[in-house]
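Entry:
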Amino acid sequence: MVAGFLDGLRVVTTALNVPGPAACRRLADLGASVTKVEPPGGDPLETYSPSWYGRLHEGMTIHRLDLKQSFGREAMAPLLEAADILVTAQRASALLRLGLDAKSLVRFPRLCHVAITGHAPPDDEKPGHDLTYLAEQGLITPPVLPATLYSDMAGSERAVSTALALVIARGRDGRARAETVPLSEAARALAMPRTEGLTGPGTILGGGRAGYNLYAVKDGWIAVAALEPHFESRLAQSLGLDTPTTAALAAVFQAETARHWEGWARSHDLPIVAVRQSPRE
């Protein structure tokens, strides 16, 4: 990614926790200047994960303002006057209390507003978090919790693309607009491969194809993604197999370590990697 594409673009955000800060981090990495307004108590993410909070907010200007009070809203006004984009992650009722509702923002005619919410209207007041959005879409297998914040991170990317679309549209006709980015819709999009029959149990990407599967090895597991016919054919030929069935591949792979198979795959131009517990391993 090349920084500088968004030089001169000014973003103000009141978004707390993960999706909004992650979206603003992305915009900042592309060159936008970001000013964050936090409540007097700060952002809960700073308590949950101080290191990630620091990484997400590096280089940003942070103000602590009580927008529930008139003096806080008065201090906020110059920031909004100078901004191109406002990113929020509060429900509509909260935005009203903070003076960031649509009626209040009319006095900033250049300001595009990206409102990250849990659900789309008319359910935009319904509470939720990443876990509930995924659960609604059948993307959780109890009792195992998700490995990461899928809806939040997908929603943050949607917020970025929405912000850029609003700025492009404003450049065409001079109108600033507001758009909602529901995290539950990001979860629904993540579920589409399963909904459309690609990733459910036994489907082509759900264990039904030998070349696209997980296999036990001497010291753990490997992920084999030889999906396309040329990869699958090369895999079979390189292993001396007439037909790369799941049973045949399982028998071959269990004889060596994950590191061995990663090296072997590189030399044969095949997509095979070890299943790691952490990306730092």
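Residues 10-194 form a domain with the Rossmann fold fold (CATH 3.40.50.10540).
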